[in-house]
Amino acid sequence: MAASCYFLLGREAQRRGLSTWAYVRVAYTAAALLLLPLPYLFGGGYGGYPLEVYAYLLLMALLPQLVGHTSFNWATRHIPPVLVTLAILFEPVGASLLAYLLFGELPGSQVLLGALILLVGVALAVVGGRR
Questions:
Q1: What is the pLDDT along the chain (131 residues), one digit of tens a residue?
Q2: Contact assessment for residue 69 and residue 3, using Cβ atoms and an 8 Å cutoff
Q3: Which of 35, 36, 103, 113 has its CA 20 to 30 A from that of 120?
Q4: What are the sequence ranges of the domains in the chain?
Q5: Is the Cβ–Cβ distance between 104 and 82 less than 8 Å?
Q6: Can you give 20-42 as a three-state secondary structure string?
């Protein structure tokens, strides 16, 4: 529900003239400011980790966030947000595929069944949306 609301708000902001880049700057900055104090509130911190950890964090910020989520925000301008949120459901399916390709981890039968159900459900939503 939160993702759906986020994309509906994003689409409305873009309809009112905010560019995709302006919208994601506001959204990502607000999220960062909201999440920034959480490690300290839960007794953690930001320092003391190996340099490799920070490199992976940077990669996670650049690839999935800037490329992936910004693409989803851009897509809400051109296709219904419902279809965008349905596409987000494929993230675990894509992660399972990458785990197989990169690490040789074969998804379990329940994961494969879930992927099939998702594929059929999204196909029904797309076909139903065209009618």
A1: 888 888 888 888 989 999 999 999 999 999 999 999 998 899 888 888 999 999 998 998 888 888 888 888 898 888 888 788 888 888 888 888 889 999 999 988 988 898 899 889 888 887 876 66
A2: no
A3: 103
A4: 2-130
A5: no
A6: HHHHHHHHHHHHHHHHCCHHHHC
The single-letter code of the amino acid at 81 is: P
- pTM of the predicted model, to two decimals? 0.71
